[in-house]
Write a structure and sequence with these properties.
alpha/beta; D-Maltodextrin-Binding Protein, domain 2; 2 domains; five-stranded mixed beta sheet; 9 helices; 15 strands; 23% strand
Protein backbone atom coordinates (compact mmCIF):
# COMPACT_ATOMS: atom_id res chain seq x y z
CA UNK A 1 0.00 0.00 0.00
CA UNK A 2 2.82 2.40 0.81
CA UNK A 3 4.40 1.66 -2.57
CA UNK A 4 1.09 2.51 -4.22
CA UNK A 5 0.96 5.82 -2.39
CA UNK A 6 4.41 6.74 -3.72
CA UNK A 7 3.31 5.96 -7.29
CA UNK A 8 0.14 8.00 -6.92
CA UNK A 9 2.07 10.94 -5.53
CA UNK A 10 4.39 10.99 -8.55
CA UNK A 11 1.37 11.18 -10.83
CA UNK A 12 -0.18 13.85 -8.66
CA UNK A 13 2.94 16.00 -8.72
CA UNK A 14 2.80 16.12 -12.52
CA UNK A 15 -0.87 17.06 -12.47
CA UNK A 16 -0.69 19.73 -9.78
CA UNK A 17 2.45 21.24 -11.29
CA UNK A 18 0.50 21.82 -14.47
CA UNK A 19 -2.38 23.38 -12.58
CA UNK A 20 -0.20 25.91 -10.83
CA UNK A 21 1.83 26.65 -13.96
CA UNK A 22 -1.32 27.47 -15.91
CA UNK A 23 -2.84 29.45 -13.06
CA UNK A 24 -6.03 27.40 -13.30
CA UNK A 25 -6.67 27.19 -9.57
CA UNK A 26 -9.73 29.14 -8.46
CA UNK A 27 -8.98 32.68 -7.29
CA UNK A 28 -10.50 34.43 -4.28
CA UNK A 29 -12.21 37.81 -4.42
CA UNK A 30 -8.83 39.44 -3.76
CA UNK A 31 -7.46 37.93 -6.96
CA UNK A 32 -5.10 35.52 -5.18
CA UNK A 33 -5.06 31.77 -5.69
CA UNK A 34 -5.87 29.61 -2.66
CA UNK A 35 -3.63 26.88 -1.31
CA UNK A 36 -5.63 24.33 0.69
CA UNK A 37 -3.93 22.52 3.57
CA UNK A 38 -5.45 19.49 5.30
CA UNK A 39 -5.36 19.11 9.05
CA UNK A 40 -6.75 16.61 11.51
CA UNK A 41 -8.14 18.87 14.23
CA UNK A 42 -7.55 16.49 17.13
CA UNK A 43 -4.00 17.55 18.03
CA UNK A 44 -4.15 20.40 20.56
CA UNK A 45 -2.44 22.79 20.74
CA UNK A 46 -1.46 22.40 17.08
CA UNK A 47 -4.95 21.95 15.64
CA UNK A 48 -8.29 21.36 17.34
CA UNK A 49 -11.95 22.37 17.37
CA UNK A 50 -13.01 24.98 19.92
CA UNK A 51 -16.34 25.17 21.74
CA UNK A 52 -17.85 27.15 18.87
CA UNK A 53 -16.89 24.56 16.28
CA UNK A 54 -13.98 26.55 14.83
CA UNK A 55 -10.75 24.82 13.80
CA UNK A 56 -7.98 26.64 15.66
CA UNK A 57 -4.47 26.00 17.00
CA UNK A 58 -0.84 26.96 16.58
CA UNK A 59 -0.30 25.25 13.23
CA UNK A 60 -3.67 26.41 11.91
CA UNK A 61 -2.89 30.05 12.65
CA UNK A 62 0.66 29.64 11.40
CA UNK A 63 -0.68 28.28 8.09
CA UNK A 64 -3.16 31.15 7.78
CA UNK A 65 -0.39 33.64 8.58
CA UNK A 66 1.44 32.52 5.45
CA UNK A 67 -1.05 34.68 3.54
CA UNK A 68 0.52 37.79 5.07
CA UNK A 69 3.94 37.07 3.56
CA UNK A 70 3.07 35.26 0.29
CA UNK A 71 0.93 35.98 -2.77
CA UNK A 72 -1.55 33.22 -1.95
CA UNK A 73 -4.58 32.75 0.26
CA UNK A 74 -4.13 29.82 2.66
CA UNK A 75 -7.10 27.69 3.71
CA UNK A 76 -7.21 24.87 6.28
CA UNK A 77 -9.69 21.99 5.98
CA UNK A 78 -10.38 19.42 8.71
CA UNK A 79 -10.05 15.76 7.64
CA UNK A 80 -9.66 12.37 9.32
CA UNK A 81 -6.07 11.37 10.14
CA UNK A 82 -6.56 7.83 8.87
CA UNK A 83 -6.87 9.03 5.26
CA UNK A 84 -4.92 12.27 5.34
CA UNK A 85 -1.93 11.06 3.29
CA UNK A 86 -4.16 9.29 0.76
CA UNK A 87 -5.98 12.61 0.28
CA UNK A 88 -2.68 14.32 -0.48
CA UNK A 89 -1.80 11.66 -3.05
CA UNK A 90 -5.16 11.90 -4.87
CA UNK A 91 -5.24 15.70 -4.99
CA UNK A 92 -7.97 16.37 -2.46
CA UNK A 93 -5.85 19.26 -1.15
CA UNK A 94 -2.49 20.90 -1.84
CA UNK A 95 -0.60 20.02 1.35
CA UNK A 96 -0.84 18.87 4.95
CA UNK A 97 -0.38 20.92 8.12
CA UNK A 98 -1.25 18.48 10.86
CA UNK A 99 1.61 17.79 13.25
CA UNK A 100 3.29 15.59 10.65
CA UNK A 101 6.58 14.16 11.88
CA UNK A 102 9.42 14.10 9.35
CA UNK A 103 10.63 10.55 8.80
CA UNK A 104 12.86 9.00 6.13
CA UNK A 105 9.95 6.87 4.92
CA UNK A 106 7.71 9.91 4.51
CA UNK A 107 10.50 11.93 2.87
CA UNK A 108 10.62 9.26 0.17
CA UNK A 109 6.96 9.89 -0.63
CA UNK A 110 6.51 13.65 -0.14
CA UNK A 111 8.31 16.95 0.36
CA UNK A 112 8.68 18.73 3.69
CA UNK A 113 9.23 22.39 4.47
CA UNK A 114 11.61 23.44 7.24
CA UNK A 115 10.51 22.14 10.68
CA UNK A 116 8.06 24.29 12.60
CA UNK A 117 8.61 22.40 15.89
CA UNK A 118 10.48 19.43 17.35
CA UNK A 119 8.68 17.01 19.61
CA UNK A 120 9.17 13.62 21.26
CA UNK A 121 6.92 10.65 22.04
CA UNK A 122 5.66 10.91 25.61
CA UNK A 123 4.45 8.12 27.86
CA UNK A 124 1.25 9.03 29.72
CA UNK A 125 -0.05 6.98 32.65
CA UNK A 126 -2.83 7.41 35.21
CA UNK A 127 -1.75 9.55 38.14
CA UNK A 128 -2.49 6.69 40.55
CA UNK A 129 -0.54 4.09 38.54
CA UNK A 130 1.78 1.84 40.56
CA UNK A 131 4.25 1.68 37.64
CA UNK A 132 6.12 4.63 36.16
CA UNK A 133 7.67 3.65 32.80
CA UNK A 134 10.55 5.97 31.93
CA UNK A 135 11.39 4.66 28.47
CA UNK A 136 10.17 2.30 25.77
CA UNK A 137 11.84 -0.72 27.38
CA UNK A 138 9.73 -0.18 30.49
CA UNK A 139 6.62 -0.78 28.35
CA UNK A 140 7.56 -4.45 27.86
CA UNK A 141 4.63 -6.68 28.78
CA UNK A 142 2.18 -3.77 29.01
CA UNK A 143 -0.92 -2.77 27.05
CA UNK A 144 -0.35 0.59 25.40
CA UNK A 145 -2.67 2.88 23.46
CA UNK A 146 -1.55 4.83 20.38
CA UNK A 147 -3.03 6.93 17.58
CA UNK A 148 -3.38 4.68 14.57
CA UNK A 149 -0.64 5.25 12.00
CA UNK A 150 1.10 7.93 14.05
CA UNK A 151 4.76 7.87 15.07
CA UNK A 152 3.98 6.33 18.47
CA UNK A 153 2.19 3.47 16.75
CA UNK A 154 5.09 2.84 14.34
CA UNK A 155 7.64 3.20 17.12
CA UNK A 156 6.08 0.47 19.26
CA UNK A 157 5.51 -1.82 16.28
CA UNK A 158 9.18 -1.58 15.32
CA UNK A 159 10.51 -1.92 18.87
CA UNK A 160 10.66 -5.72 18.89
CA UNK A 161 9.29 -5.63 22.43
CA UNK A 162 6.41 -7.68 23.80
CA UNK A 163 3.89 -4.82 23.91
CA UNK A 164 0.16 -5.21 23.31
CA UNK A 165 -0.69 -2.24 21.10
CA UNK A 166 -4.20 -0.84 20.92
CA UNK A 167 -4.76 1.72 18.15
CA UNK A 168 -7.33 4.52 18.16
CA UNK A 169 -8.44 6.97 15.46
CA UNK A 170 -8.80 9.61 18.19
CA UNK A 171 -6.28 9.53 21.04
CA UNK A 172 -8.93 10.89 23.42
CA UNK A 173 -10.56 7.45 23.24
CA UNK A 174 -7.26 5.89 24.25
CA UNK A 175 -6.94 8.26 27.20
CA UNK A 176 -10.46 7.35 28.37
CA UNK A 177 -9.77 3.65 27.86
CA UNK A 178 -6.66 3.96 30.03
CA UNK A 179 -8.51 5.77 32.80
CA UNK A 180 -11.12 3.00 32.67
CA UNK A 181 -8.38 0.47 33.42
CA UNK A 182 -8.05 -1.07 29.96
CA UNK A 183 -4.55 0.26 29.20
CA UNK A 184 -1.36 0.61 31.20
CA UNK A 185 -0.13 3.63 29.27
CA UNK A 186 -0.61 5.81 26.20
CA UNK A 187 2.22 6.85 23.90
CA UNK A 188 1.56 10.11 22.07
CA UNK A 189 3.30 13.24 20.78
CA UNK A 190 4.62 15.43 23.58
CA UNK A 191 2.55 18.43 22.47
CA UNK A 192 -0.64 16.43 22.74
CA UNK A 193 0.51 14.89 26.02
CA UNK A 194 0.98 18.36 27.47
CA UNK A 195 -2.53 19.32 26.44
CA UNK A 196 -4.06 16.39 28.32
CA UNK A 197 -1.73 16.36 31.32
CA UNK A 198 -1.46 20.12 31.90
CA UNK A 199 -4.01 22.16 29.96
CA UNK A 200 -7.18 20.07 29.89
CA UNK A 201 -9.26 20.73 33.01
CA UNK A 202 -11.23 17.51 32.46
CA UNK A 203 -8.08 15.48 33.16
CA UNK A 204 -6.44 17.67 35.77
CA UNK A 205 -4.82 15.49 38.45
CA UNK A 206 -5.73 12.28 36.58
CA UNK A 207 -2.71 11.92 34.29
CA UNK A 208 1.07 12.23 34.46
CA UNK A 209 3.83 12.14 31.88
CA UNK A 210 6.11 9.41 33.26
CA UNK A 211 8.79 9.35 30.57
CA UNK A 212 9.59 9.23 26.87
CA UNK A 213 9.41 6.42 24.33
CA UNK A 214 12.24 8.03 22.32
CA UNK A 215 15.71 9.26 23.12
CA UNK A 216 15.69 11.84 20.33
CA UNK A 217 12.76 14.01 19.28
CA UNK A 218 11.43 14.34 15.75
CA UNK A 219 10.84 17.48 13.70
CA UNK A 220 7.34 18.50 12.66
CA UNK A 221 6.77 20.14 9.28
CA UNK A 222 4.16 20.92 6.66
CA UNK A 223 4.32 18.61 3.66
CA UNK A 224 3.52 18.73 -0.05
CA UNK A 225 3.51 16.30 -2.98
CA UNK A 226 6.69 15.49 -4.85
CA UNK A 227 7.32 17.97 -7.63
CA UNK A 228 6.30 21.01 -5.56
CA UNK A 229 9.83 22.17 -4.75
CA UNK A 230 9.02 25.79 -5.63
CA UNK A 231 6.13 25.80 -3.19
CA UNK A 232 8.27 24.35 -0.42
CA UNK A 233 10.92 27.01 -1.06
CA UNK A 234 8.22 29.68 -0.86
CA UNK A 235 6.95 28.31 2.48
CA UNK A 236 10.48 28.13 3.89
CA UNK A 237 11.06 31.79 3.06
CA UNK A 238 7.66 32.70 4.48
CA UNK A 239 8.45 30.92 7.75
CA UNK A 240 11.69 32.89 8.01
CA UNK A 241 9.75 36.11 7.44
CA UNK A 242 7.20 35.18 10.12
CA UNK A 243 10.03 34.39 12.52
CA UNK A 244 11.66 37.75 11.86
CA UNK A 245 8.48 39.80 12.22
CA UNK A 246 7.58 38.16 15.54
CA UNK A 247 4.47 36.29 14.38
CA UNK A 248 5.82 32.85 15.28
CA UNK A 249 6.85 33.98 18.77
CA UNK A 250 3.39 35.46 19.33
CA UNK A 251 1.65 32.26 18.25
CA UNK A 252 3.88 30.08 20.43
CA UNK A 253 3.12 32.28 23.43
CA UNK A 254 -0.61 32.18 22.65
CA UNK A 255 -0.70 28.37 22.59
CA UNK A 256 1.79 27.72 25.38
CA UNK A 257 4.51 26.25 23.20
CA UNK A 258 8.12 26.61 24.35
Amino acid sequence: MKKMVITLMVLLSLTTAGLFANGSKEKNSNGKETITMATNAEWPPLEYVDDDGNVIGYEVELTEALATVTDYNWEVVNVAWDGIFAGLSNGAYDGIASGVSVTEERKAAMLFCDPILVQIQSIIIPADSKDSPKNINDLEGKTVGVLIGAIGDLLLQDSGLDIEIKSYDNIAYGIEDMLNGNLDAVVVDSLIAGEYVISNDAYKGKLVESGFAQEVGEPIAMCFPKGEEDKVAMVNQALKDLEENGTIAELKAKYGIL
